[in-house]
Design goal:
Radius of gyration: 19 Å
Strand content: over 45%
Order of helices and strands: HHEEEEEEEEEEE
Number of helices: 2
Distance between the termini: 68 Å
Shape: globular
Number of strands: 11
Structural class: mainly beta
Largest sheet: 10 strands, antiparallel, barrel
Length: 180
């Protein structure tokens, strides 16, 4: 006969309140995120498909910690493929799950991209994974985004997506420099 799983222990109200306080209190990772606040300029390179010629663009991002220092909002502006571009991101570090979560929206689509992934202290990178719609094919595809903290004034973001052959390829790279 199948065994009945053991229910989790009943927590007293003081433990529940302490857990909640820990969940909602910014920690060391949030302090690191706050160091990324400010205005950044970005040199973007995009590839629409494997082997395609690169498309170059410039962008600006303004990062700001919000809601008691738990989330970082990021407003991006620039031009992409000859059209005005605007995007908004929200980055969180979930104290319970011990992972970053990222939500992205922009004026080049009508959906939301939600990515999650860990921080790697040794390489100073966040590797986020998730899915989004490829507007060209209307298919949902796998996305991988790697954000590397090169130094306090330089970050490099690389985005990888699934190509027509089902293999991952680098679709974007942004080198961001803190504006002086």
């Amino acid at each position: 006969s199948p065994s009945t799983p053991t229910p989790p222990p009943t927590l007293d109200s003081a433990t529940k309140m302490r857990n909640w306080q820990e969940y909602m209190t910014p920690g060391e990772v949030h302090k690191m995120m706050a160091s990324w606040d400010g205005t950044w300029t970005g040199d973007m390179t995009m590839w629409m498909e494997p082997g395609a010629p690169p498309i170059k663009a410039q962008a600006k991002a303004v990062n700001k910690m919000v809601l008691n220092g738990l989330y970082q909002t990021s407003k991006h502006t620039g031009n992409m493929m000859g059209a005005p571009f605007e995007g908004n991101g929200t980055l969180a570090y979930d104290n319970q799950k011990k992972v970053f979560e990222s939500v992205w929206i922009d004026n080049m689509g009508s959906g939301m991209m939600h990515l999650t992934g860990p921080w790697d202290e040794a390489t100073k990178t966040i590797t986020l994974k998730g899915k989004c719609i490829d507007p060209a094919t209307r298919e949902e595809i796998q996305i991988r985004e790697v954000m590397k903290v090169v130094d306090e004034n330089t970050h490099v973001m690389e985005m990888y997506m699934t190509g027509p052959d089902g293999k991952e390829f680098k679709s974007m790279e942004i080198t961001a420099k803190r504006a002086k």
